[in-house]
Amino acid sequence: MPTAPGQQANTVVPMPRRELPGRAPLGPEAPRPVRAASPATAKGKTNLIKISALLAIGLPTVLASIYYGLIAAPQYVAEARFAVRGADDMASPADALSMLTGLGVAATSTTSDSYIVSQFIESSQLVGNLQRTLDLRGVYTSDKADFVAKYRPYDFEDTLEHLTTYWNSVSWNYFEPISSTITFTVRAFSPEEALRIARETVRESEKLVNKLSERAREDAIALAKQEQARAELRLKMARKAVQDYRDRKGQTDPMTVATAKSTLIAGLEQELAKQEADIAGRTAFLNKDSPSVRVLRQTADALRSQIEQERAKIGSLQNSGQRELMSASLNEFEGLETEREFAQKAYEAATTAVEAARMRAEQQSRYLATYVEPYLPEDSLYPARLQMVLLVLVCSTVAWAIGVLVFYGIRDHTA
């Protein structure tokens, strides 16, 4: 209400709240306790982060810059590209479609040989061959190499396996399964050495392909040669049997003897028929006991006896006490001659099969087709100095950031 002039208004003045000593203020307006960090602690954290960043990022980057900028020796790369090819590599349209789609592709002989060559390049056998021809240890321990990239043989590890491990770090090959091509690169500390190593590697790979091709040819004609050897042995045995028969019988060809015997019997029979005709003619007007008729009959009886003897020799008679019949001898000779003819034909067929197998093997021969010859490099491709320094910087930064996050995460979790 309004007050009259000169009269004091009755105002209500709020009394301050009395708080008990030792107790926190009550109500929503009560302030929360805040722990204030000391300046020394914050400064220590900042210094720790700076020191860790300097050690984890700056030091590796500086060392990488010094090494790649001042110490790292240039490395030259020689490249070669080749493939194993053969006369039977013409694929049908269906095979070509399968090769493009990658479905149902069967590993051909050239593909398997290319894969073998790719594995051979990484093997200790190639390293041993290169060591004998090029002194591979001397190439990669020369004064042109720096202490990090050079081959460092130890007294207890200077073995062929240790050298092979180093070889696989400076060489690289890629096998393309669809086209069956191989890409090979090798690094060295001089252009001439890189070219020598690449050429010698291609030469050793070519030797391997020739060896595989020769082995394939030998395997292809091995069975045919075995059959030829068996047929030749059979022919020799058949010929030896015929020779033994001729030596035992004293006859070159029993067939000729039998033919002569048959001709003789035919002649005797013809003479007997003539004698019998004369006898019949004389007995028509002479007595049967006349001297001339008796002579003709005696002659006819002698012819009959001779004919029977000759027939018995051929085999018309088989008496137990008789000598060996010509028919049995002829039968034995015919069996031997038949075996010899069969053996001769089998040997000729086996010889033809060997020649056919040899022709097929020549058509299936393999060779190394080098379509990119190794050339003398003009500039060093390794090391990529700027890229490597940047890579060290990025990797060390990422590693430092991850370490810092892990450290503070662990500290906050345990606080």
From TrEMBL:
Transmembrane segments: 51-70, 388-410
InterPro entries in alphabetical order: Bact_polysacc_biosynth/exp
Residue spans of biased composition, Polar residues class: 1-11
Top-level taxon in the UniProt lineage: Bacteria
Region (Disordered) residue spans: 1-39
Any one GO MF annotation of this record: protein tyrosine kinase activity
Keywords recorded for this protein, A-Z: Coiled coil, Membrane, Transmembrane, Transmembrane helix
Any coiled-coil regions, as ranges: 195-248, 293-320
GO cellular component: plasma membrane
Protein name: Capsule biosynthesis protein
